[in-house]
Amino acid sequence: xxxxxxxxxxxxxxxxxxxxxxxxxxxxxxxxxxxxxxxxxxxxxxxxxxxxxxxxxxxxxxxxxxxxxxxxxxxxxxxxxxxxxxxxxxxxxxxxxxxxxxxxxxxxxxxxxxxxxxxxxxxxxxxxxxxxxxxxxxxxxxxxxxxxxxxxxxxxxxxxxxxxxxxxxxxxxxxxxxxxxxxxxxxxxxxxxxxxxxxxxxxxxxxxxxxxxxxxxxxxxxxxxxxxxxxxxxxxxxxxxxxxxxxxxxxxxxxxxxxxxxxxxxxxxxxxxxxxxxxxxxxxxxxxxxxxxxxxxxxxxxxxxxxxxxxxxxxxxxxxxxxxxxxxxxxxxxxxxxxxxxxxxxxxxxxxxxxxxxxxxxxxxxxxxxxxxxxxxxxxxxxxxxxxxxxxxxxxxxxxxxxxxxxxxxxxxxxxxxxxxxxxxxxxxxxxxxxxxxxxxxxxxxxxxxxxxxxxxxxxxxxxxxxxxxxxxxxxxxxxxxxxxxxxxxxxxxxxxxxxxxxxxxxxxxxxxxxxxxxxxxxxxxxxxxxxxxxxxxxxxxxxxxxxxxxxxxxxxxxxxxxxxxxxxxxxxxxxxxxxxxxxxxxxxxxxxxxxxxxxxxxxxxxxxxxxxxxxxxxxxxxxxxxxxxxxxxxxxxxxxxxxxxxxxxxxxxxxxxxxxxxxxxxxxxxxxxxxxxxxxxxxxxxxxxxxxxxxxxxxxxxxxxxxxxxxxxxxxxxxxxxxxxxxxxxxxxxxxxxxxxxxxxxxxxxxxxxxxxxxxxxxxxxxxxxxxxxxxxxxxxxxxxxxxxxxxxxxxxxxxxxxxxxxxxxxxxxxxxxxxxxxxxxxxxxxxxxxxxxxxxx
Length: 843
What we know:
Blueprint: H1 2-5, E1 10-18, H2 19-32, E2 36-37, H3 52-74, H4 91-142, H5 155-160, E3 172-180, H6 184-194, E4 200-205, E5 210-211, E6 218-219, E7 221-229, H7 231-243, E8 247-249, H8 255-291, H9 294-311, E9 315-316, E10 322-330, H10 334-348, E11 355-358, H11 376-385, H12 396-410, H13 414-429, H14 431-437, H15 442-449, H16 451-468, H17 496-499, H18 534-567, H19 571-602, H20 614-623, H21 638-677, H22 682-694, H23 697-705, H24 719-743, H25 746-769, H26 774-816, H27 833-838
Antiparallel strand pairs: 1-10, 1-11, 2-10, 3-7, 3-8, 4-7, 5-6, 9-10
């Protein structure tokens, strides 16, 4: 848990591994998932690296696995998940696995081709069978034609069919085939135009839907028969059929030959059905057998590919006997890393132990915050703004409490919080089953990843709902009421009879006999729910509460910056930055909180009418105006105290602005004098230049921000840049204190909006809908409640909840974290098989 408050201490380590043991050692580090490899071959093209062929072979096996998986999905075959994740295969096992997958792919592709050919033949035979049947029905229905009909002069028949005959008598021919139903209309029109009406077309729809062997989709087709005279028309008809992709089948002229062909086709169809069934059974057996090992094969291939990818990041020495790697790793886990390397050495059969040495460096290490399933959601919220600098204060442990609490201040409702709590508990209690389902929906993944965040937000919402005494816009009357009625009523306490009178009640504690003087035990008195001046009371209460919470959180953020300065040994920043910042914010806005609390404690119900305005006092404080007759002072010597605080705050501004740049300038001049008086040897100077060149831009920016990097021996120093940077920081802080305090008023605004939306929804739906009586009202109550529940979930839970979440996010990112958090670091991305298999690792 220590790393939750501040990132883990990291070190740059160099590994020397024997070539034979390099693969197994890196595989063990991948199982451990605690090291980040540096690329030592940046200048080398990806296609020229040593193990690029092994990576390509792994990608080829991944392609085969995707092909097998798609085939199984098409056949709805369940892929077996292994109970235990298989170990990374050895390099020699890669050849065996590659052979198995290639053989399986070849066999399956051959079976698919054979099956497609058989189905194509089956489709053609089925079409021919239907064509023969339709043709026979046509000839039987139209006329009893003799077998030698097509050898006679048929010009008279064509005239009877209203088809213009040729000038000379000739043989009547016909063409039969099958065409897609969607092309039939255009096909008929084209035949009529090209042949100029000298044909006779008859077509009929096929009742059965046929399956296309390529697309595996059902297609609808028509059977057609075309009569014509002469060879010229025959050629035209043939070309039109080819153009419209119509399948033409040979059809005998005599009925006896057609019947014989039908019998032959039926026999061939039965034989094809038998062969197709056997082929499908063989294919199913192949896929079922492969489904048992497909997941394990996929894991092995991914692990092999990842190991070879990491090996491409390493160097091979000139003797080709040693693999050199550089890794970032947590200092606390170095012993575990050494044990993993030793296990890899034993697995490979090597006898030379790996060598692990630390490398001194000025490069900024990656940021690694160790999290679990509870804290990971909150850490992701912080990292979404920016990854912390190395060893910078981590806002996550404070966000775990403040984020759901500020959300609940805006979303305070017991009923809505209870519904949210039910959804969060369902996700938490069924997390193992839901994780195993592996739903890829992005919205669901986001909600499920933040299930513990939603759980805390719902718990805090229920708590603040009890504070506001608000549940679906209604109040709980648990402890009774501290208000009393006037003498005109029968009883001396609020009761049911008074509630049904429908009068406008205005709560005024200054009226004698109305308020008992005892505070409500917990939260807000329920009688305010029916009071006419409810909004006036709650607005003042929530607005001041928001200001107090906001200033308290901002002061806490300034205090956290002190721990950053002390951790990085920036003691000058404590004097010239932290102290004036704390003085400025406490002298002005801390005093504002004091006035709010002092007014609450000083004035009671009898003297509240004479209480001065805090806002007017705060404005007059800056104007040094203490002669306002309409606004009496809060306490004696108020003028002296406020004048002192304003002057003290004004002194803090040049304190922040001027002292640090001039101190840095003096230190730089002093270091330059020391450098000229005692110059470094040539070799040390070169070493120092090399080390300085290794520092990245993020480190330089961070150092400049906190007053480092200036005045180093031999370093460049620009006083103008330093002064402008400090001026920007001073202006941002001073103006930010004002704007950020105003920004916290969103706590009051969204709380008011949520309460009013809830009340409007109840009034418009439930109260008006339940006004009807009788049987209609009994049936309508179910419909009305369903509408109320749907609108509550859609508007108040989803939309309002998302709005409150985003505003709480902004309050933490902008108003709280900017006081101590720079977020300019880079994230620790370890080489981890678990992350690769889960799909969370970066490419």
